[in-house]
Every structure is written in C-alpha cells, then in structure tokens.
Amino acid sequence: QVQLVESGGGAVEDGGSLRLSCAASGRAPTNYVIGWFRQASGKERELVASIYNRFSSAYADSVKGRFTISRDEAKNTVTLQMNSLKPEDTAMYYCAAKFRGTQEYMYWGQGTQVTVSP
Hints:
The protein is mostly beta strands. It has no helices and 11 strands. The protein has strands at residues 2-7, 10-13, 18-26, 32-39, 46-53, 56-59, 67-72, 77-82, 91-99, 107-108, 112-117.
C-alpha cells in the first residue's frame, strides 16, 4: 500500500509558476513510478508527467519545456515544477503510483487545484 498526499496548488496568472509536491509513504515507494495527472472540468484525465528515477521520466507534449518532474528518494517526494503556466493548465492535479512495467496506476492522492487566470 502506498499513500500519496499532494500539496502546492493555487491560483496564478498567465505566465506564472507553481510547484506541486507529492509525498509518498507506505510500502517501498521507491519501487514505483510516480505520475502527475490532471483533469480539467468537462475533460478526460490526462497524464502530464511521470518519473521512475532521474534517468527515466516522460512528459505530455502540452507541457514539454514548461514542466519539470523530479524525485527525491530520500524524502520520498516527487515534485512537479510548472513554469510559463497557461489558462489551459487549469485543472485538478493528482499524483499516482504504479509498479514499474505495469499499465495501471493503483494508488492515488486526493488532488490539488491549479487555476491559471488570463
């Protein structure tokens, strides 16, 4: 079992920055891939970024060059640094965990809201 708690959401203006954190606890969290998802009102949930270690990370095309995901294994924390935010980045952001090599994210946090105003 892995417990995930997100923090760091808020409201910023177009072009602003936010840093989201996902604190993981429980069973062997370093053996999991951590992903950041987002879901905007009326839209499907999408995977924004994921990371296994510093050599293995991936991003959605819509955030490449603007978002950076990083992992601090000592603190069991995954951070999503979001720069050059746009109104279309407005969504509820969730972190989730899955076993490496599997498809399904099994563990989810409660989410944190990000709002970007024009």
